[in-house]
Amino acid sequence: MNSYDIFKKLTKGIKFDQRRFKDDFKKLGLQQSASGALDKPVVPLAEQEHEPNTEGKEEKAKSKKKKKTLNDKQKQLKLQQEQIRHRRRQLGIQVWGADVPPPVEKFSELVTDHEVNNKLVANIESQGHTLPTPVQAQAWPLMLQRRHILASAPTGSGKTAAFLIPLLHGLGGPKKKGFRAVILSPTRELASQIHRECVRLGEGLGIRAVTIANVTKAKQKYGPQSSQKFDLLVTTPNRLVYMLQENADGPPLSLANVEWLVVDESDRLFEDGQRGFRDQLATIYRACTGPSVTQALFSATFAQSVQDWCRLNLHNLATVTVGLRNTASEDVKQHLQFCGSEEGKLHALREIFRKGYEPPVLIFVQTKERAKELFRELIYDNITVDAIHADRTQKQRDNVVAAFREGKMGVDLH
Ligand SMILES: Nc1ncnc2c1ncn2[C@@H]1O[C@H](COP(=O)(O)OP(=O)(O)OP(=O)(O)O)[C@@H](O)[C@H]1O
């Protein structure tokens, strides 16, 4: 026990006048505080470390608390991310790209989390759908953020509504600015189908969606001299390219105000086929001269060439794949029939029909010549069959689709 300890013990509870006993304090090695009250003794630095430093303790506690909050936040974030990954796994969704938002779980989230018009959500619910399909669940939040997207999901997985809902939301309502959204589809029939769906989903929003039935009339209706009272165009690329060809007064149709460009069945449109879709697409992209054009490409299969193009041309692209890449829908039963030769195909087909079949039946062939040939063969087999190909008029094509939809025709050739 040193002198200070002894002094402390002896003077416990007593206050000293430090000014009066200044010399004694000095002798004892005690320090005077500014207030004049007995203070801590001057202790060498080495000893100070052992002194209980309450200020440091507080800071340590604060930083510990801060660290804990940070850790808690990180843990929460990790948990959320794991939950999102789990949900994507459950839905068979794979995503690539930075900061991809979580998939939506319910239609109502579109209203609560993404400020989508109630009417639009009511329109999709009124079709009897209860939950978003996987491609819708992931494409909606992405497109609502105006991200470029490349999505592949099986046939019949609801891709049309996957791009239509964000598009209709983005357009908001009618404006007299001409076309602000363009949807490209490889065939006129598909374009009409998308247009029908668009009208159904957009009911009550006032957005004017049109499709080109006749190019000459369309030039007058949608040209620069028109009222510009239209917002969305659904068309095949070749019709649109025709409408973009310059004449003496400039192009008959302007895409200068386009904000959205959607390519449906993008893998087919990107094929290096005889119809040169790529060149047509390039012409259309060039005509969309607006300051910001969000692009969305949807298809049933995943094509590497399409992804390469998107990565090269679209900033901050998000890629979404539903199911295993390039596998058929699990809802479709498939059967592989070996036919041996070209002629064998017809025999095999006849055998299938002879055994009995349940209409409607759709047969896809490679070329219009093949469609014509097969049509000529089947028409004599007492089968109600018709064909759609590029040599048929729009009226004929529409009639075939109508008869097929109404069940008046058993077999349709494409
Ligand atoms: N959320 C949903 N729940 C149930 N059915 C839906 C939903 N959304 C769309 N559908 C329906 O699924 C069917 C197929 O949709 P859609 O034609 O959009 O598929 P798709 O993926 O575009 O197919 P394809 O690759 O053949 O063009 C339609 O009848 C559509 O009304």
From TrEMBL:
SMART domains: DEXDc
UniProt xrefs under InterPro entries: DDX52/Rok1_DEADc, DEAD/DEAH_box_helicase_dom, Helicase_ATP-bd, Helicase_C-like, P-loop_NTPase
UniProt xrefs under Gene3D superfamilies: P-loop containing nucleotide triphosphate hydrolases
GO BP of this protein: maturation of SSU-rRNA
GO molecular function, one term: RNA helicase activity
Domain Helicase ATP-binding: from-to ranges: 140-320
Bias kind Basic and acidic residues: ranges: 47-61
Reaction catalyzed: ATP + H2O = ADP + phosphate + H(+)
Enzyme Commission number(s) of this protein: 3.6.4.13
Region (Disordered): 33-74
Keywords of the record: ATP-binding, Helicase, Hydrolase, Nucleotide-binding, RNA-binding
Pfam entry (one): Helicase_C
UniProt note: domains: The Q motif is unique to and characteristic of the DEAD box family of RNA helicases and controls ATP binding and hydrolysis.
Family listed: Belongs to the DEAD box helicase family. DDX52/ROK1 subfamily.
Role played: RNA helicase.
Family matches, as PANTHER family: RNA HELICASE
Name recorded for this polypeptide: ATP-dependent RNA helicase
